[in-house]
């Protein structure tokens, strides 16, 4: 056991040569464009069926909007995509290869932004960021971190400890994390919470650049983010409750969801 | 490997900047041992007789005290989720964090132990073995403790639960740790005890990160 995980930890997927605005296509072979897809996904949280029979497909350069009311399973789906949560049925595939065959490789090609910003109060912004950049496999973590902060419009917070940052600054720091190291697929759960208009506009540009370079994005949000040509996935279409299986159970579940 | 070392480096930096966490364990250790002469009376022979056991029990409790926080902060601020999504295997994450924890809490205990042994009138012949047993034993405590810390993550009153889970598992370490010192003080060789401690360490080193990683994966779901 000990030997095997050391062996894995030495290997890392293609992140060594990276300049912050030109991600990823050399990671994958140029002929076959990778497609991230899920088929017949069913997700169970506790004893509640969140969604069932869900299919999606994201090709390079594409973006997917996850829409639906609170509790319809947007976050759950993103966690399933990230591999944090196992679907009880259905399969994720990358380029027609099941993700479950090689979860390590999958973790190497995603960036996940959840509800929590993972900012350490005693570390400065650039220390926080360069740590994540190192883990993401960036060759020059500190340089990438500074460039990413600059790109998010907050170069002045570089040396400010995490505990003095505002909610919006922490969120920008968290978003800077995804451009400080390369990854093909961005999974963003309500990324614009606490951001001001200017930051949202910046972020839209960043997503557009990522997609132009062949990246993929899946976003759940209640705020309008401009992503031209993005596909919509309405999660309430897959919620078993709204199909009216059992009215009483349905009511109760909606209370939980709210 | 770079990433493994960076994680250790980050945890050390966090511990040193927060300060209190690191020093609390060793302060607790010292106070705990110092209480015994007040309880059992200042009779030098009695103190010398119980010194090895007292120091070891205090070391167990001190290591337990800081273990609760091993994954707690990372869990609460979302870092654990991101660590589990990094290409660094979860087992390596556990090992790095445990190692950093031991460097911050275990090493100061070892440094303070001879002083406390002197205070309890332990025979100077036992000092070397005392330090040696702690050097082999405290990493086992951190490793076994990491399983408990991972299992109780997110539980209310996790600290109490952690003690109940982990203290029984500490018993073999205590027996061989204190046994080695007693053997040395009585003119016997401490070798068998030390070898058994070494065996425990060799077993815990791969198994504990593996078990903790499984528990952590469950916790971040």
TrEMBL record, chain B:
In terms of domain of life, where is this protein from? Answer: Bacteria
Keyword Cell inner membrane listed? The answer is: yes
| Keywords linked to the UniProt accession | Cell inner membrane, Cell membrane, Cytochrome c-type biogenesis, Membrane, Transmembrane, Transmembrane helix, Transport
Recorded GO molecular functions are: heme transmembrane transporter activity
> What is the annotated localization of this protein?
Cell inner membrane
Asked if Cell membrane is a keyword of the record, the answer is yes
UniProt record similarity statement: Belongs to the CcmB/CycW/HelB family.
Name the record gives this protein: Heme exporter protein B
Q: Which organism is it from?
A: Azospirillum argentinense
Q: What is the lineage of its organism?
A: Bacteria, Pseudomonadati, Pseudomonadota, Alphaproteobacteria, Rhodospirillales
Q: List the gene name.
A: ccmB
